[in-house]
Amino acid sequence: MTLHVALLRGLNVGGAKALPMLELRTLCEGLGWRDVQTHLASGNLIFEAEGTPAALAEALQEALAARGLAVPVLVLPPDEIRRALAGCPFDPAASKLVHAAFLFRPAKLDREVFDRFAAPGDEIDEQGGILWLHTPGGFGRSKLATRLEAIAGAPLTVRNLSSLGKLVHLLDAREQTR
């Protein structure tokens, strides 16, 4: 079995697409995935399974759809999460103000849209298929939060730097016990 990370978009955000984490773990175990671990209630999974990331993402999306939840899923190898965290172009001390937008497909950054909605101090950078966003005024209050897909030109899911750090910590702990 291979270790994977799944990032679910929009699960349990603002009361929409609600699914308790125990039910999500049970659903994943029903797909044959093992040692399913969740982080927070916002759709971060670490699990072991056989299959390609695309096939695993599709299987989980279909299982969620059968429950009436249209939730895009991105499955990544652990090293991609580690590379993302290591490649952050912004100050790690601002971990809750720095966000990584993981793209579901290759995209092109539209700086005009970014410039139109950015607040003073907002910054964006693209590194290795990840859009990095620094919003000193807070991501939730930023006009960019609802326009990231227009800026990226592709579907995406966002995690703050603090969550990525915790995922890497959990991955490291898992790999030490394997």
What features would you describe in this structure?
InterPro entries: DUF1697 (IPR012545). The chain has helices at 21-30, 53-66, 78-86, 111-117, 148-152, 161-176, and strands at residues 2-8, 34-39, 44-49, 73-76, 98-103, 123-127, 130-134, 156-160. The longest helix is centred in the C-terminal third of the chain and has 16 residues, at 161-176. It is globular. 29% of the residues are buried. Helix 3 crosses helix 6 (161-176). The chain has six helices and eight strands; from the N terminus they run E-H-E-E-H-E-H-E-H-E-E-H-E-H. Strand 6 (123-127) and strand 7 (130-134) form a beta hairpin. It folds into two domains: 2-76, Alpha-Beta Plaits; 81-162. The chain starts with a strand and ends with a helix. The model has no long low-confidence stretch (mean pLDDT 93). By secondary structure, the protein is of the alpha+beta class. The strands form two sheets. A four-stranded antiparallel sheet has the order 2-3-1-4, with helices on both faces. It has a four-stranded antiparallel sheet with strand order 6-7-5-8.
